[in-house]
Structure formats: structure tokens, C-alpha cells
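User: My instructor asked us to take a sequence, write out its structure as C-alpha cells, and then describe one feature of it. I'm not sure where to start. Here is the sequence I was given:
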Amino acid sequence: KGLVDRAERTDGGAAMEVLPVHRRQSDSASSASSFRSRGVPEAGAFDSMRDRTRYGDDGSSVFGDVFPFLRPFLRRAVHWNQMDFEAAVDEMLSLLVAQPSRVYKQAYYRKQTKNRWARDDPAFAVCQVAFLVVAAVATGCALRARRVVTFAYLAFAATVLHWLVGGVVASSAHSWLSNAYLRERSWSTHSVDQKVEWLYAFDVHCNAFWVYFAVAYVAHYFLLPVVLGHSFVAMLLANSLHCFAFSSYFYVTHLGFRALPYLRRTEVFLYPIVAAVALLIATIALGILGYKINASKISIAAVIAPLT
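Assistant: Let's start with the prediction itself. The C-alpha cells for your sequence are:
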């Protein structure tokens, strides 16, 4: 009753009924305003509230994607038959022969097939931890360690402190920086606002740390008799080696975040390389003046300091 207005128009004896569409629109508008006045969220408000709760007001995600993925990841890490070591070794070789873009292309394919950038196979991380343990034991032998506790501490320092804790700090800082300042925000209602996964940031750390490991652990180990010398050449070689390892880490990190199509100004990850080169030049200048600062001696002293 009253919902249909009858307007009769005589046109060949036919009668026409006109529905008042304007009334329905006004009724829906008044209903929406009444919902707002009562404090009821509109359509889509729950999604934005959920995103703000998960990512923060600035849209940055740090640990939002970690915990649902961590349990199956660790479960696969203790089952050797569920890990693809052949693919992990192939990625390690690609990183060492200056083909990191091939590794990040695999991440793009993974996004297309599994809708995630990060690895779901822990084989790469397991191999990295194994190599770190071997390098720690070799370093202990070079330093003439005799106690089992010393070897255990060196392995703990390399795997937990240097790789894991350092990786958590670096990944958290890089993902926060990317989501807060480097992400290209989409203002269209028909597009998905993408964010950097923390696990992908940790994947980038693992890739970069592998190149760092090859220089600062492996190459450094074979050059220990030289870089621990007291001459200017020993200081120059040691500092250059550490500078190259540090620069390689951030160069591979830059490539990892540049592979994400929704990030801009990723060259900020190259800025630490400028600082490392400047520091190397400063140590060379001080060495010419007679003040020799050897990075190898400082790093080894810092590692074995708790044992003394």
C-alpha cells in the first residue's frame, strides 16, 4: 500500500503503471545514514578494520604472515623427503655465479602458482645452517680450539646470532621500510593493495647472506694467515674482503626487493654500500698515517671475546 503510484495515461486505451524508483533510492540512502548514525560499519568497513589491525594504520606488515606459515614450514624441515635439495643447491649456485635474477624469477613464478612470494620449502635454509656449522667448526680448528664447548659456541654464534637473529632484525627492518615508504599504494577500489611479506624479506636475507657467507666465511677462512698479519697489505686485504662481503649482501637485497612490481625507489637498499666504501677509504687513509684498523682481527676478537 502506497509503494506503487498509479499514473494512468491514455495512449491508445492502454494504462501504464510507473514504479517510483526515486523513492527506493531515497529509502536506501536514509537507511545508510541511519546505520551510520547508530555506529554500524558500512559495507567494506570490516575489511579495512581487519587490515588496519593486521598491518597497522600505515599499511605495514611485519609478522602478520609468519605464524600461520611457520608450523608447516618447521614440520617440513624435519622431514628430508619433503625438501627439494636439488632446487636449493641450484639456487645457491645461481647466486654465486652472479645470476640472482634467476632466483627471484622463481619467486615470481611461485607468486603466480601459489599466491606467495616466499619459499615454502625449508631446504635452502637447512643447507645454509649446515654450511654455517661446517664453517664454524673449520674456524675453530684454525684458531686451535680444543674444547667441545668452544666449537659449540662458534656454531651457535654463526647460526643463531649471526644468521637467525641478524636475519630477523634485517627482515623486520626491510619489510617495514618497504611497506611504509616504498610501496606503491593503489587507490582504485578494483585492485588489491599488495604488501611485502615478512617471510619474503627473510628469503631475501637468506639469499644475500649466502653470498656474504661465501666471501666473509669461506674466502676469509683460506686467507686467515694473510689477513691476520700486521702489515698494511694484510689490513688492506682484510678490510677490502669485508667491504666486498657487506656490499654483496645489500646488492642482492636490493635485487630481491626490486623484483617486486609494487615497490618503488628500491635503490635505497644500495645506500649502505656507499657507507661501506667510504669506511674502507677512511681505514686506508688511517693505515697510511700508521693507524691500522683490521676488520678481520676485530671480528674474530668480538666472536671469541665471551670465551676469554
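For the description part of your assignment, you could build on this observation: Residues 35 and 41 are 7 Å apart (CA to CA). Try explaining in your own words what that tells you about the chain.
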